[in-house]
Structures are given as structure tokens and as C-alpha cells.
Design brief:
With about 160 residues, the protein is an alpha/beta fold. The protein is built from 5 helices and 7 strands, in the order H-E-H-E-E-H-E-H-E-H-E-E. It is globular. The N and C termini lie far apart (about 55 Å). The model has no long low-confidence stretch (mean pLDDT about 85).
Amino acid sequence: MKKTIASFFILSALFCNAVYAIDFSERDRLIAEASAKVPFVTPKELNEMLENGDDFIVLDIREIDQRAEGTIPTLDKYEVTRGQLEFEIMIMIEDKNTKIVSFCRDGPRGAMASKTLIDMGYKNAVYLKGGLKAWAVAGYKIKSGLGRTINSVDEF
């Protein structure tokens, strides 16, 4: 009986690991596909766009609790979680010619969000390569969730 129970738990653990491996590989494939197909901007390019006063919207698709980490200082910023993007974006941004730069914390969800936007007919959707972390590492300012501006990645 003990061997049967032990075998059951071992097989269950192996099955669960196999399921997670399949899910992660599919997720990784989708992220790689989106990253390869969707245009991106680098932190330097986004900073230049902001400094030049270019006409575009920054779309923060991070989860609500992640927004406390801070954000890219801009006036034209919209927020919607990745999970709600398809449901809310057409109300938030009606003009499908609008340039949209989506970002997340590290980049993959930004790429996925931009791919979704393109699939929905938005013609000028790009993502911030490397997300907010790359922005911080590049040395650009971050408006913190506390309302102050962080000047270095060490403060991030």
C-alpha cells in the first residue's frame, strides 16, 4: 500500500512537471513569435520621442500592483492590464492610426500586447524592448508610485 501511494505521488509530480513544461514552452513560443514580428523601440528611441514631443501614447500593460514600481514620466500614458487589453483598448483609444508604445516590466507582455493591438487593427503599435527595467538600466528617469522621480537604477 505504501509503495502504491508513493508511486502515485511520484507519477503525479512527474505529470505536473510535464504539464508545466508544455505550458511554458508554448508561452515561450508565443513570446518569441510576437517579439520577432512586432516592431519595438529601445529606451533611447522612446526617450528621444518624448524629448521631441512626438505624438504617441504610452500604454502601461502591467498588473496594478506592479505599477507601484513607478512608470515612464509622460502625460500621454494609458493603463490597462494585459488581461483586459482586448476588452478595454477600443474604448480607450478609438483611432487605430494612433502610435502606441506598450510596455511591461521586462518586455514580453509588451510585445504580446503590441501583437494583439496589431491583430485588432492598430497600425502603429510597438513595444518598449526590455520594458521598464531596460528603461531604468539605461538611466532614464522613472516617476515612482510615490510621486517622486527616481534618477538611477539603484533606486528602482
